[in-house]
Amino acid sequence: MGFEKGSEVSITLFDPLIFPNGKGLDQFEHLYIHKVTSDMVIVKTEKGNRIQIPIEKISSIDDGLGGHIEFARNLEETLDANKPVEEKELEVKEEVKPKKLDAETKSKLEGVNKKELELRESIWFLIGSDTPFTGKAFTLYKNGQKEWEGSYKDGKEDGAFVMWFENGQKLREGIYKEGKPDGLSVSWHENGKKKSEANWKDGIFEGSVKYWNSKGQPVESLNEANKK
Q1: What secondary structure does DSSP assign to 70-102, as a single string?
Q2: Distance (Å, whole) CA 192 – CA 218
Q3: What angle do CA 211, 215, 218 make, to 5 degrees?
């Protein structure tokens, strides 16, 4: 999957994960990769507790330093099976209906929506195709704002990618080469202040990682950078 054992990550889910106490969460931060299988991601919390998360529930995994994986999901699976077909089609159209976008991200969408892609043995394909996907892809927030944009070559992320917050502020940008981070990766806080800066070579860090908190002050770790 691209993340080494012990890597600190944040994970966003399509649907909340319900715990025995009835509490449901759809986003987790300060988790550490323990083990990845074909259908499960096992992580540890800061206290050492393990959480098993089914792959099909995961929307994205991010290490805050340029390592980022988006998972596609068939939107039809989220619809109520008891609704008439006409209602289902209307719900899909309303969910992706574009609204007023930020100036930087309201340009014409290029490529395909990532919902049209599927991952098979670490290679991305257009759904129904047997040819590894080459081209541009994007994801959108529910309000129509562009969330992510990147390129693929022969089924692997290859080239520049950009991510945005829902308010249109840039969140992260970097470069992938044959499915691995390669080159300079920069991330920002939602207020526009730089959050991190790292150099990658073939999926491995080169040199030290620089961090800043939301006030623009240099700090020593990702945890400190994430503090409000």
Answers
A1: E----GGGGS-TTS-HHHHHHHHHHHT------
A2: 15
A3: 30
pLDDT tens for 143-172 read 888 999 999 999 999 999 999 998 899 999
Residue listed under structure tokens 């470069």: 175
Complete domains list, the chain, with CATH: 1-63 (2.30.30.100), 74-226 (3.90.930)
What is the three-class DSSP state of 180? strand
* Cβ atoms < 10 Å from Cβ of 175: 19
pTM as predicted:
0.58
Give the separation between CA 77 and CA 79, rounded to whole angstroms: 6
Angstrom distances, CA of residue 216 to CA of 79, 84, 189, 192, 193: 42, 52, 9, 9, 6
Of the candidates 132, 119, 27, the residue with the CA atom closest to the CA atom of residue 74: 119
| Per-residue pLDDT reduced to its tens digit, 175-190 | 999 988 899 999 999 9
- Amino acid sitting at position 30: H
Q: For the chain, how many helices (H) and strands (E)?
A: 2, 19
Phi-psi sector, 220: left (phi>0), alpha (psi -120 to 50), beta: alpha
Which amino acid is located at 214 in the chain? S
Computed on alpha carbons and rounded to an integer, the radius of gyration of the chain in Å comes to 18
**DSSP secondary-structure letter at 124?**
E
